Amino acid sequence: MRAFFLIAALALVGAAPAEEGEMRDVIVIAHRGASGLRPEHTLAAYDLAIAQGADFIEPDLVLTKDGVFVARHENDITGTTDVAEHPEFAARRATKIIDGENHTGWFTEDFTLAELKTLRAKERLPQLRPGNTRYDGRFEVPTLAEIIALAKKRTAETGRVIGIYPETKHPSYFAALGLPMEEKLAAELRAAGWDSPAAPVFIQSFEVNNLKRLHQLTKIRLIQLMDASGRPADGAVASYAAMTTPAGLRAIAAYAYGIGPNKAMIWPGKGDVTPLVEQAHAAGLRVHPWTFRAENAFLPPLWQRGRAPEGHGDVGAEIGFYLQAGIDGFFTDFPAEGVRARGAAR
Question: Per residue, what are the HEC states of the chain?
Fold first, then answer.
């Protein structure tokens, strides 16, 4: 059975190119920037992604104590900054419950922006990306305003429209702290001139009520994120699985432009492709799966090369497989690979 599917998968990847223009609107989303090559969520990672041809750069947004949006994978900055090396902040180490899980470390909501700017970013996955560690200590934690400015500057310089694709991280958690995200985010994007479906912006979230509130505040396109297990942290829906049914997808279409599923929800690594893309399209939704990474640790066996977890496999072939499955865009830590795969599929 495995051999049969291997042959079938390779045939699909190597199938005749798509009709001219079929891939024209497929977007390459630089996941936290070119995060396979630079520490994630730094202006350097975003700028490299743009140079490599990404259409959108993706900042995960959390808030500071004084209510400023900054880009970090989580509000827990222990693993992505040098905060532990700052004795002046030692007393701020804390244990908190975030989305039902205990986390011990340092958190953005306990720092002002000025204090965060004294920290420097570091590689989050040093075992898998040792080359990135040479950049540790070089880059600041960027604000949303700085990311918007970069996108606009590089749009002017390149002649290509560079969009942003922010994710609201833990919005219900921040709301409980008195730091609601929705009005603030809509206002900051509006001040940048972005408040229409034509704006080069998508807003994404794993929560539901956050997006429904944003739907009332802005005309910017919204993306409902989904994982292969679990449920939204705000409890608005019983499970992500329930959201993937035809009825669940129709409900999403009432407030969102598309979905961002875990790529395993489209193909679980064996057997057939699921009907998710087809059913989402039937509901009028675009599909932007996450996340395509080059390291063997993140690739299905079919596309791994060698045994070293940090070694690189054939992520381009993996992306090509999903393009043939009909996706409308994709998140990748290696945007140059994504651009090449999209070009090969045209």
Answer: CHHHHHHHHHHHHCCCCCCCCCCCCCEEEEECCCCCCCCCCCHHHHHHHHHCCCCEEECEEEECCCCCEEECCCCECCCCECHHHCHHHHHHCEEEEECCEEEEECEHHHCCHHHHCCCCECCCCCCCCHHHHHHCCCCCCCEHHHHHHHHHHHHHHHCCCCEECCEECCHHHHHHCCCCCHHHHHHHHHHCCCCCCCCCEEEEECCCHHHHHHHHHCCCEEEEEECCCCCCCCCCCCCHHHHCCHHHHHHHHCCCCEEEEEHHHCCCCCCCCCCHHHHHHHCCCEECCECECCEHHHCCHHHCCCCCCCCECCHHHHHHHHHHCCCCEEEECCHHHHHHHHHHHC
In DSSP terms, which residues pair with 105 in a beta bridge?
94
* 7 band by pLDDT with thresholds 50, 70 and 90: very low
Pair 241, 259: CB distance under 8 Å: no
Task: Give mean pLDDT, residues 21-30.
Answer: 79
pLDDT at position 3 over 70: no
Q: What is the mean pLDDT of the chain?
A: 94
Rounded CA-CA distance 80/119 in Å is 10
Round to whole Å and give the CA distance between 224 and 255. 9
Taking residues 93-110, report their average pLDDT.
Answer: 97
The answer on pLDDT for 204 being more than 50 is: yes
- In degrees, rounded to 5, the angle at the alpha carbon of residue 251 between the alpha carbons of residues 265 and 200 is 75
CA–CA distances in Å: residue 72 to residues 52, 75, 142, 242: 22, 7, 9, 29
Domains annotated for the chain, with CATH where assigned, are 2-8+20-73+140-345 (3.20.20.190)
**10 pLDDT above the threshold of 90:** no
Could you tell me the pTM of the whole model? 0.93
pLDDT range class, residue 346, cuts 50, 70, 90: confident
Q: Shortest CA distance to 37 belongs to which of 120, 128, 119?
A: 128
pLDDT at 21: 44
